[in-house]
Amino acid sequence: MAIDVKVPVLGESITEATLGEWLKQPGDPVKADEPIASLETDKVSVEVPSPVDGVMGTHAVKVGDTVEVGAVIGMVEPGGSAAAAAPATIAPAAATAPAAAPASADAPAALSPSVRRAVLERGIDPATVTGTGKDGRLTKDDVLAAEKAPTAAAASAPTASTPLAVATGRKEERVRITRLRQTIARRLKDAQNTAALLTTFNDVDMTAVIEARAKYKDLFEKKHGVRLGFMGFFVKAACMALKDIPSVNASIEGDEIVYHDYADISVAVSAPNGLVVPVIRDADALSVAGIEKTIGDFGKRAKNGTLSMDDMKGGTFTISNGGVFGSLMSTPIINPPQSAVLGLHRIEDRPVVRDGQVVVRPMMYLALSYDHRLIDGREAVTFLVALKNAIEDPTRILIDL
Asked: Cα 202 vs. chain centroid, distance in angstroms?
C-alpha cells in the first residue's frame, strides 16, 4: 500500500509553503529519510524526506503550488523496484505534474535549488555534467567546474544555443518570485515604514588586523581547522561595543524597550535565493575561533540550502559584509525587531594623515543604520568609535578595553 508523503512541521508560526522542486520523479528508487521534494518557506528551503524505502509514486501537487503543514503532496510505494513501479506511477504523475521530466537511466539526478539556479544562470545542460554528490547528484561545484572546462562547454553548446538561434529580437523572461524573496521584500519595507531609520558613517584603518591575520593565519587554521577571516575580529569588537552602548543591542516592543544582556549576532550570508541572516548565539561568549567556525558552517549550509528555521530565529544585532561583493559604501536596512545593523565594505588603499604625514593605509568604511526612535546620534557615533578603536588596536579585544 502506498505511503503518503506529507508536509512536515515547518517551524513556529509557519503554516504553509510553496513546492519549489521535486527531487524524485515517479519510478525513482528512494531510501528512508532521503530528500524527495524541496519546499520554500518564508525563511529557508526545507527538504521533505521519504517516509520509507521504496519507489517514488505519484505527485499530488505541482511545482509552485502552495501547501499547508500536514497536506499530502505525493506517494511512496514501499519496497519493490523502479522498473516495476514506473508503469503504474509515471502516467498518473504526468497528469498532475506535466512540467516534470520522466525519469530515465541516463537522466541526471534531481537538482537542488542552488544547483538549478547555477545551471540556469550559466546556460549549462545538466545532462552533460557528471555529478559528484550523493547518488550522483550534481553539486554547485560540478556546475562551476563544467563552466570552466572547454570540453563541458563544447558538449553543452548545442543544447544551450538552440533557443538563441531561433529567437530574434529582444527577449524577456518571467520568473516566479520565491516566498523567501517576497518575505525579504515585505520585512524590509515594513522596517522603512515603521522605524525612524538613520545611518552614520566612520572609517577604520585595517593595518593592524591585516598584519595580525597574515602573521597568525597558518597557525590559526592548523590549530582550529578554520581560516582566520576579518569577521571574527568585527563580531568580537561589535560585542564589546554593544556592552558599552546597550541601546544598540535593544529592541522596541509595543511601548517598552527590551535590553538584552547577551549578544546574538545575525550575520548576513549569501544563499541561492537571496541573503539570509542566521544567528551566532551568545557571540559575546565565543572566541574568535568559535565565531569563525560558526560563520563558516552557516556559509556552507546557506549554499546547500540546509539552514534550518532555528538558525534564523532571534538575533539582537546584525552585521552585513557588502565588501565581499565590492561595495564601497551603503546604508543597510535594519532587520526588525532589531534596532541597528552594521555594514562592512571593501578594503582599499587610501591616503590618510598620520603624525602630520600623508601615508597610504588599507581603509574600510563602516556604516551603522539604526532606529532613531531608540538610539540617538551620540550613541550611534560612540558605538562606531568604540568599534573602530578595537579594530585599529586588536589588543583591546584581548583585554576587553
From this structure: 27
Report if pTM > 0.85. no
All 3 cell numbers of residue 251? Answer: 529592541
CA distance 252 to 274: 27
In the CATH hierarchy, which top-level class contains the domain 110-176?
few secondary structures
The vertex-216 CA angle with 211 and 218, nearest 5°, equals: 125
1-107 to CATH, choices 2.40.50.100, 1.10.10.10, 3.40.718.10, 2.40.37.20: 2.40.50.100
Q: Write out the E strands in 227-347.
A: 251-253, 256-258, 265-267, 269-271, 274-276, 279-280, 317-321, 340-344
pLDDT tens-digit map of 188-246: 788 888 889 999 999 999 999 999 999 999 999 999 999 999 999 999 999 999 999 99
Triad 221, 227, 230: Cα angle to 5° = 130
pLDDT 10s digits, 94-141: 333 344 334 333 444 466 666 776 766 667 777 788 877 766 777 777
CA 221, distance to chain mean position in Å, is 24
- Where are any strands of DSSP class E within 259-393? 265-267, 269-271, 274-276, 279-280, 317-321, 340-344, 348-354, 357-371
User: Which residues are designated catalytic?
Assistant: 372, 376
CATH classification for the domain delimited by 181-399, as one of 3.60.110.10, 3.10.129.10, 3.40.50.300, 3.30.559.10: 3.30.559.10
> 18 and 10 in contact (C-beta within 8 Å)?
no
Q: Is the pLDDT of residue 330 over 80?
A: yes
Convert 305-318 into a string of H (helix), E (strand) and C (coil): CCCCHHHHCCCCEE
Which amino acid is present at 167?
A: A
- DSSP states of 90-138: HHHHHHH-TTSPPP-TTSPPPPPHHHHHHHHHHT--GGGS---SGGG--
- Among 35, 83, 15, residue whose Cα is nearest residue 55: 83
For the chain, domain boundaries = 1-107, 110-176, 181-399
Q: Is the peptide bond before 332 cis (omega within 30 degrees of 0)?
A: no
